[in-house]
Amino acid sequence: MSLLPKKFPFRQSSINGIKNIEDVKRVFGDFAKEFDRLYSKLYDSIESGGMSTSNWDIREATALDVTNGDAKVAGNLIAKHKTNGTKREFEQ
User: Fold this and answer.
1) What is the chain's mean pLDDT, rounded?
2) Does the predicted TM-score (pTM) go above 0.90?
3) Cα distances (angstroms) measured from residue 32 to each of 24, 28, 29, 43
């Protein structure tokens, strides 16, 4: 499952309360803080090379997977069922 929320957690109503430059700094600071937090989660997910659902783990095959016989080519996707352990390779 994704660690990202379905909606960006920023109160857009705070934009309507901007009256001076200090309010702009506060609202933009709040936006930047939430953006950095979500970008960090997205980056970690992309760099980990995979994703997960309640039943499957999906990741990118490495050279070790090729030598172990789990994949034909590094970079292909490998899906592993969490319950019964079956694996499936998807070519890219």
Assistant:
1) 84
2) no
3) 12, 6, 5, 16
